[in-house]
Amino acid sequence: MQHFDNKMLGDQAxxxxxxxxxxPVRPTSPTTAGRDLLPLEVRGLTLRLGGTVLIDGLDxxxxxxxxxxxxxxxxxxxxxxxxxxxxxxxxxxxxxxxxGRAPMAAVTRRQALVFQKPVLLRxxxxxxxxxxxxxxxxDRGRREAxxxxxxxxxxxxxxxxxxxxxxxxxxxxxxALATDPEILFLDEPTASxxxxxxxxxxxxxxxxxxxxxxxxxxxxxxxxxxxxxxDVVFLHRGRVAEHAPAGRFFRTPTCRAARDYMDGRIVV
Length: 268
Ligand SMILES: Nc1ncnc2c1ncn2[C@@H]1O[C@H](COP(=O)(O)OP(=O)(O)OP(=O)(O)O)[C@@H](O)[C@H]1O
Hints:
By secondary structure, the protein is of the alpha/beta class. It has 10 helices and 9 strands. A hairpin with a 2-residue loop joins strand 1 and strand 2.
């Protein structure tokens, strides 16, 4: 079972340029001290719903650093895997172990999940962040820093529902970052955004990774995966068909399903 971290990946992760920012994303905790959820070890993870096996004895190891892109055809189980890892769904069988510990509420609170369609409060942009900052500890200065960081510094008073799709997704990301997560799960966050919005979201994700946040990102966008990935997990029929450093995966995917997928052939 392979285990990926930045040592194995060489300086690929370090070589990615970090967008210059006037405000640090995480002004209250600039180091990764005390952040110990990883490595993640998953063994025999199984999810059966209505008599159908949707996640099928899945094994996965994730190291403490970098950005893992999860790819695979429609229905492969990518979203279900992310929800299982985040603790939103209870598996039928198998083991998820965060640095040797079983999942618990405290683990889920140290992770954040951003969906393809942002789920926002029907209140102002600022109120959407204050809601989280009140629970997690954070003041107005932190809220303003986060909004500037995601390019919404001038929209604080606007109703969140009036934001464009790309802006809503950036607010969802700001809210996720406000929880100062050790792991940020993103499930196709740019699937319905225009190219400029995609670039902005990717910048924010790169910054978060550079600040020490572990990224697990589901995408169908091969270009995006190439731009962001340190390693790629390719899912097929509820199992990990391949897990490889990004350079190797994109050069020569070894499993047939991944090769077909990358060549644009339908994978069932
Ligand atoms: N609550 C559910 N009950 C029954 N089946 C489900 C449920 N949720 C998902 N599934 C099925 O599980 C399979 C995997 O779903 P999942 O959403 O994880 O796929 P995915 O890899 O994210 O696909 P896509 O790329 O289309 O988003 C699909 O066949 C889906 O229909």
